[in-house]
Amino acid sequence: MVSQHGILLAVGIISDHFGPLVAKVCDCLLRHGELSLQEIVRRLELSPGQVKNSLLVLIQHNCVQAFSAPKGRDRTVTLYLAIFDNVLHRLRFSKFLSVIRADIPESEVLIEGLLQNGRLTFDQLVGRTISKVPEGSIRPAREEIRMNLNKLVHAHFVERCPKPEPFIDPLVVQQPTSSRRRAPKNFEKVISLEQKIVNTADLSDAERFSEIPYIIEDASDVNGCSRDPVDSAKRKRGAFEVDEELNSTIAENEVLWRANFEQFTFCLKKKFCADRKKLKLKVGTHPIWESFCEANLTEKDTDSVTSPINGILERLRQKEGGASMTLDQVTRVLEDLQCTTSNENPEAYTFDLRKMVESCRNEEIESLVKKKYGQAAFTIFRLLVTQGGPVETDQIIDTTILDKQIVHSTLYKLWKDDYVDTEKISSVAGTGYAQFYVWRAKSTFREQFIDNLYHAALNLRQMVNYIAELLLEGSKDDTKLRNRKNILILALTRHDDSLMLFHDF
Amino acid sequence: MPPRKRPLEPSSGKPPPPDVKAIVPPPSDPPAAAQEIPPISAAILNNLPGPEREVYKRVYAAGNKGIWSQDLRHSMQLAAPTVTKLTRALVQRGILKEVTDVRHRGKKVFMDSRMEPAPEITGGTWYHNGQLDTEAVAAVRRRCLDQIDRLGAATPDMVHKGVEREDPRAGYMIDQIRDILKTMALDRVLEECRSTGEGEFSAVRSGRVCYRRGGAPQGGMIEGIPCGVCPRIDECSPDGVISPTTCVYYKKWLQMDF
């Protein structure tokens, strides 16, 4: 369940991007869950046309998924569900673009088109790409654009859009269709209805990332450029080719493509963990860590990074001071960096991102506790978190070696702000005490922290909009206001890293 | 209820396996003498009148944890002034003493004057006159940190020996050093880890729990903006009395007058 400020933030983003009407529909869906068109119309008192158009916009931008659900015995109804994660991803499109700029720079314009327009066919992408070329420059060939899109699909940055309206019975527990999403047997994760619907709507991995077949056609040359004679020579003829051509035409004209946010999130997660780890590295180990991150080729799951030792060494040789390092030194450093090898593949090192993310989350919360309540609170809170269970007041005093009065006042402050919970336990006769107090870190402190993150992001956005309004009025010093606005936008971008750490990683 | 401090354990016959890879056999620690409780004094009992003798017996029975004057009053079913008079007389004669209970500083706790108060009463090794000796704690933390900086990664035993070598008069017990190291790990000044027996852990036997310097403090991403540490965040809403556009913290942060 999304917290109150999370909903407000998502609605704020939609309102800024698509206007108040679409935001109203999104708000309704986020608050009430899956609803039919009639139910939305009834709740919002808008015309069916307005709601329908708003839903179309939201679906086009992957913020809403439609699905059919049974109604009565043999009737079905179309329900609409807001996808909160995808709404929030709209905050970080600039980060997604920078990922592509670093990885596949030639495909940047394509991903920009998909992020701006949500879903596009290849033909639309070609048209858009050509229209973006400045006058006088060489227009890119259709084949070149196809190749660039295929690169994005191959790297899983772009995928084919999910089924438009899958049949789902919300009462029946659905199994995830995608093998990539399947959790290990011993790890039973509770999947939300939203996730179940998204999983059911998703195509299989083979379909999702199926590239446009490489067939050259004489006709339908959008930009009018003539074909490369060498490429044309490759063309084959026959019944088989007709099917291939048909597939290619369908893939170009009918298949809708969209950005795969999961892959972007994984890239940002890897980058975040790599940067965070860098700060803890000892002198001389930086090149090894960098080589390990760069050598990552196969991505089995989004919770770990695996790199073959040969790849690591190859990259290390290209770095300053890396050529002189022996295999023994490198493996020792990798082990020290908590990179492990498995029995299946002893030549590859794996780094557990999940563990790293978990420790980063703890560090963030502990750091806030330290800033707000001081060093003593930091120590006590860490003790309670590491112990996991209830700890008696005197035991806290003994373990932390802090003054009793300080411990008491700190525990009170933490309890008042809902970081810790307390319980009074009656003492048995003969101990000389009537009762004891035990303390434990509250299980909800993380949810509360995340809600505060949403609240802070919401406030930053509100301030950006407020300054934008002041700029439109033109009553104040423009340069000063513009600088303040830039500070706020930068702060929001940085703050989004925290949001991603707690919500997406 | 758990004891306030681990009592000092007498050394067992079998020495524990060494943490450090044997280079020079470490000198054995002197056995920590368990605190002995003196037997009840017949001479004192014979010299005391009836009610005072009864008070003394009860206080003696409470041992080194002492007895609270209220408990004494209830157990003897006497009036408060009478108990006060009796205990005062015994204190003046040097038979009983009044000690401060670290947990309840306002309580009057009496004890046989020949006994040393238990750690539950005194607060343990880091307390002096019922108050935490912050200077002593800070001093031993500094010494431990110096040893860790010198050794790289070290077990509590190694740190203890290093501290003893540098200042033999300090007289810290291994348990004290262990407690301090644990607190420093909680503070993230140190990091608790298991030795691999290689690299920086080459001096420590593989698998042993040891301590090394914790990395630079991380986190604090949310603290960069006013809302991160705002005490009024719960009262803030987009259209409320407290909102970002009326926020004094934002005004100060952006150095602007709205």
From TrEMBL, chain A:
GO terms for molecular function: single-stranded DNA binding. One of its GO terms (cellular component) is RNA polymerase III complex. Residues 148-331 form the RNA polymerase III Rpc82 C -terminal domain. It is found in: Nucleus. Residues 9-68 form the RNA polymerase III subunit RPC82-related helix-turn-helix domain. Gene3D superfamilies: Winged helix-like DNA-binding domain superfamily/Winged helix DNA-binding domain. Keywords: DNA-directed RNA polymerase, Nucleus, Transcription. It comes from the Eukaryota. The keyword Membrane does not apply. The keyword Transcription applies. DNA-dependent RNA polymerase catalyzes the transcription of DNA into RNA using the four ribonucleoside triphosphates as substrates. Specific core component of RNA polymerase III which synthesizes small RNAs, such as 5S rRNA and tRNAs. PANTHER family: DNA-DIRECTED RNA POLYMERASE III SUBUNIT RPC3, RNA POLYMERASE III DNA DIRECTED -RELATED. Belongs to the eukaryotic RPC3/POLR3C RNA polymerase subunit family. This is DNA-directed RNA polymerase III subunit RPC3. The gene is LOC100837993.
Automatic annotation (TrEMBL), chain B:
GO terms for cellular component: cytoplasm; nucleoplasm; RNA polymerase III complex. Keywords: DNA-directed RNA polymerase, Nucleus, Transcription. It holds the Pfam family RNA_pol_Rpc34. It comes from Brachypodium distachyon. The keyword Kinase does not apply. Belongs to the eukaryotic RPC34/RPC39 RNA polymerase subunit family. The keyword Transcription applies. This is DNA-directed RNA polymerase III subunit RPC6.
